[in-house]
Amino acid sequence: MGPRLRHLLELCPKESPVADVGSGHGRLALELARLMPGATVYATEAKPGPARELRRLLGESSPVTVLEGEGLAPLRGRGCRGAVIAGMGGHTIRSILEHDLDVAAELAWICVQPMQDWDQLEAWLERQGLWSMDIQLSWERSRPYRTIRLFAS
Q1: Rounded (10°) CA dihedral 40, 26, 74, 50
Q2: Is residue 36 within a helix (H) or strand (E), and if so which, with residue range?
Q3: d(CA 55, CA 148)
Q4: Which of 10, 41, 43, 142 could form a disulfide with 23 if both were Cys (CB 3.0 to 4.6 A apart)?
Q5: What's the CA gap between 79 and 77, in Å, rounded?
Q6: What DSSP string describes 63-95?
Q7: What is the CATH superfamily name and number for domain 3-152?
């Protein structure tokens, strides 16, 4: 795990249940589970194929539960305290939050790390007025990454 994702993990409150939204390879979700032994950790993927691959990558004995569904919808009713959304553009992160704004508003915290279009995401987040923002910068391969930690206002 590179400096970008390591920094993101450092900023995540150690509260459970937590979800890695759009988990991809599942390494971030596994690291969350390692940092919080006994915690409930979810990894989500929108489509059946990627969800099946994520289950395969995590393995049968994984402490991470894979959920399938678009955006934050799989978290509905699960009592999640927080979510991590990283590895995608600011427009996609905004779309995820906007589509399930009721679920997002119930989370105590959200950590996002847009790969691009961070300025537009930040402007949208400010207009929503739902969260206090803590913005930090990390570097990987001479490229800056903005990590935005959101707390319920």
Answers
A1: -150
A2: none
A3: 28
A4: 43
A5: 6
A6: SEEEEESSTTGGGTTS---EEEEEEE-HHHHHH
A7: Vaccinia Virus protein VP39 (3.40.50.150)
Q: Give SS3 for 141.
A: coil
Enumerate the domain spans of the chain.
3-152
pLDDT tens profile 84-131: 999 999 999 999 999 999 999 999 999 999 999 999 999 999 999 999
Contacts of residue 145, Cβ cutoff 8 Å, sequence gap at least 6: 4, 7, 113, 115, 137, 138, 139
| Rounded CA separation 142/99 (Å) | 33
Cα angle 107, 113, 114 (rounded to 5 degrees) comes to: 115
CB neighbour class for 70 (10 Å; exposed up to 12, middle 13-18, buried from 19): middle
